[in-house]
Amino acid sequence: MQTPHSDAPVAKARWFAVFSLFMGVTCLISAEFTPVSLLTPLSQGLGISEGMAGQSVTAVGALAMITSLLLAPLTRHTDRRRILLTLSALLIVSNLIVASAESYAALMLGRALLGVCVGGFWSMASAVTMQLVPQKDIPRALSILYSGVAVATILSLPLASLLEEHFGWRNVFLFSTAPGLLALFWQYASLPSIAPRPGNDFRGMAALFKVRWALAGIVATIFSYGGYHALFTYLRPYLEHGLLLESTGLSSMLLAYGVANTLGTLCAGVLLNRSFRLTMLGVHAALTAAALLLFLLPGRMTADLALILLWGFAFGLICVGWTAWITLTLADKAEIAGGLSVAAIQFSIGFAAAAGGHIYDASGMGGIFLLAAGGLCTAALLAFTSFTLYAGSTGNKLH
Questions:
Q1: How far apart are CA 164 and CA 170, in angstroms?
Q2: Three-state secondary structure readout of the chain
Q3: Is the residue at 72 inside a domain?
Q4: For 100, 193, 274, 327, which has the most beta carbons within 10 A of its beta carbon?
């Protein structure tokens, strides 16, 4: 059944629905990165290397990338509410498959299904949120939506590590179905029928690739997230083997990392509003320097922990920053641009995990630090190019 599109402005904000999407984002991000804090027990439980366990992130990225590109064009006449509910249900199925996995193939199947959920949900979340609130409330609503990333970072890493210690890694994924069910029922009760916007087709997507500043920004996003996740994916092994943190110290550090990420998300709006261009370039330069310092000064407990907390803080800025880039420059193409952005992000996460897995098994964290530094430095150069081309093409400068 087709759902007619309406350009009528939203009269009243549906905050209950916005928070249901926040809950969905929290569950998705928690599920996506739970293996980061479980690499060691996961690899031992399935009899695989930690590098192979890290490839479970690759499966998510690959399917998320494909789904984010195809979902909007292939469902351009379908009620967005129906799609989001289906994806939330599949998230629950994915966690059940991983919890019962007896082989590496079963693990990857469950993670691939999660990739479909992540790619589909993220590609539509921002565009749907913009249809749930009046124009003046869109920044606040998007802030609520993306704060789910920070909350998931706080909860998933230390909580998964703590639960694994007492209940085993399988039960961590089994327990994850509970908040997934809550998100599903919450969305069912609160989301209205959401009409698809016009122009969500392959022609509109292809047109964006012909815009040089947009293409440079998308590629910059790939290197930005790729550089960050190259290190993030192998954070637990470094804390355990490189800095020799035991279970209590490990859980505390992962919690502190999540808090740092939340602070970064909260500070992002203020910093980006003051100077979007300077903040985006500065955060990439700072992370490049942090990765190089970790490479040059390995095993120094205090300094390395401080640099790792900086890494968590900066992700809040990166996440909000690239989302703000879309709202500032591509707001009229939010769903298509969102799909491309999610594809870029998931490709980068998957590639970082895949390349990182081989590099980690071959040369340890030293190679990971260099991979991260190279990706982030490249991202800074491409971001500068995108901002400059945008100003020259449109006459509008990103302050």
A1: 8
A2: CCCCCCCCCCCCCCHHHHHHHHHHHHHHHHHHHHHHHCHHHHHHHHCCCHHHHHHHHHHHHHHHHHHHHHHHHHCCCCCHHHHHHHHHHHHHHHHHHHHCCCCHHHHHHHHHHHHHHHHHHHHHHHHHHCCCCCHHHHHHHHHHHHHHHHHHHHHHHHHHHHHHHHHCHHHHHHHCHHHHHHHHHHHHHHCCCCCCCCCCCHHHHHHHCCCHHHHHHHHHHHHHHHHHHHHHCCHHHHHHHHCCCCHHHHHHHHHHHHHHHHHHHHHHHHHHHHCHHHHHHHHHHHHHHHHHHHHHCCCCHHHHHHHHHHHHHHHHHHHHHHHHHHHHHCHHHHHHHHHHHHHHHHHHHHHHHHHHHHHHHHHCHHHHHHHHHHHHHHHHHHHHHHHHHHHHHHCCCCC
A3: yes
A4: 327
318: left (phi over 0), alpha (psi -120 to 50) or beta: alpha
Axis-axis angle for helices 365-394, 212-232 (nearest 10): 160
> By C-alpha distance, which of 213, 214, 217 is closest to 225?
217
Structural domain containing residue 137: 15-394
Tokens describing residue 276: 């979007």
- The whole-angstrom separation of Cα 345 and Cα 225 is 6
Average pLDDT, the chain: 85
> Tokens 């092994």 identify what position?
237
Asked whether 343 and 65 are in contact (CB, 8 A), the reply is yes
Residues 325-379 pLDDT 10s: 887 788 777 778 878 888 888 778 778 877 888 888 888 888 999 999 999 999 9
**Residue 9 is assigned to a structural domain of this protein:** no
Domain count, the chain: 1
Model pTM above 0.85: no
| Cβ partners under 8 Å of residue 27, min gap 6 | 88, 91, 152, 176, 179, 180, 183
**Phi (first) and psi of residue 392, to 5 degrees:** -70, -30
Q: What CATH number is associated with residue 362?
A: 1.20.1250.20
Q: Biggest alpha carbon distance in the chain?
A: 61
Question: In the structure encoding, which two tokens stand for residue 379, read together?
Answer: 């991202």
Whether 129 is covered by a domain: the verdict is yes
Q: What is the pLDDT of residues 170-181, one digit of tens each?
A: 999 999 999 999
Angle at 110 between CA 154 and CA 104, to 5 degrees: 105
